[in-house]
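QA checklist item 7 of 12: single-chain prediction sanity check.
[x] sequence parsed
[x] length recorded as 442
[x] structure emitted
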Amino acid sequence: MDSTQVIEDGIEKSELLRFSTCGSVDDGKSTLIGRLLYDSKSLFEDQLDALERSVTLSGELKVNLANLTDGLRAEREQGITIDVAYRYLATPKRKFIIADTPGHIQYTRNMVTGASTANLAVILIDARKGVIEQTRRHSYIASLLGIPHLVLCVNKMDLVDFDKKVYDSICDDYEKFSSRLDIKDITYIPMSALDGDNIVDLSPKMPWYKGPSFLSFLETLHIVNDRNFSDPRFPVQWVIRPRSDEYHDFRAFSGQMACGVFKVGDDVLSLPAGKRSRIKEILHLDQSLDLAFTPMSVAIRLEDEIDVSRGDVLVHPDHIPYVSNEIEAMVCWMHEMPLLSGRKYFLKHLNQTSKAVIKEVIFRTDINDLTENYDVPSLSLNEIGKVKIKTQAKLVFDNYKRCRSTGSFILIDEATHATVAAGMICEPANNIPMPQYDGYVI
């Protein structure tokens, strides 16, 4: 069996799909997740008992499935989602981690947090309202975050008498808007989350719909090829040096494969220093492996005693990333105090944190029409734009679209240590060329 088959088999055996629900306030995101958990029989008895008690306490006529994810008292009182709620679901075919993200514009930063690790974005639309500003906002953020798959759920079809013309019109409107986004795979599903139509099973109320149910779509979505297996990146998290006479010469580097594949015998470069060696052994728990691939957590031993420490990145000499202390990046601003040129922050990238300064706000994106507004002095809460940043330490990175792990970072306030922004690296600033080490260049 070749290495490619080993990788695919290893992923399929433990395949996990992460998806986030997005959309405007009261589009039914929490209800959709509650219905999915309820109809797929994924709830425990105590959860069902709690739902039934909530009906008695609130005076509602029937069970409110949104209460399965809206856990805060303020959420239940207002009937909206404020914080990101994570739920877990397992079927015979696949495991899922579900992020229920808020729809209100005030909580856009929470939506970014919940969607940042997703394989799939679930965008809900109220069939009565169609494509609105929050639909466009969340779709743009999903595109910016590099989420490879998107499913547009036209919810509340029961309130428009399951009219196919309404559904088709919404799909056409969204198709025109999404053509300007960098999302390769979009699926459309009409549904009624409140009554369970097209959630777990196909509904007889919409015989004109010939696609899969929502659960069937989730179970069969192909995500293996979403990962970058071409560019090996191994950020070093820890240097293992056992204090024992038996292992006095043992030295290994632990971390998680950010992308790509490493095999025993592969040549490696340690960046940013550029020292070269070869992989002697790959360890996982007490086993020696022939190869490691994303997202495995392993320890790597090298043949040579080169200087490697936390924050360094092991790469293949034929697939070298950028190395620079100046970058241009798209950032989602998450703090009440605006981002301003010249302001200093901490920048956390992979396993290192460096001092950083905002050199320039290049433009701010208008979510409504996706235009880029230049000559803007700052970014305010929940705004998105492109900035130029200079860091004290050199960063080892890729374009975010090439590798999400090595192309992302967060900005941290120096005084409060609050996370103020999430960033996606576009490229080095000033078109810095690729680095060269020992004659190797990408």
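[x] summary fact logged: The mean pLDDT is 84.
[ ] second reviewer sign-off
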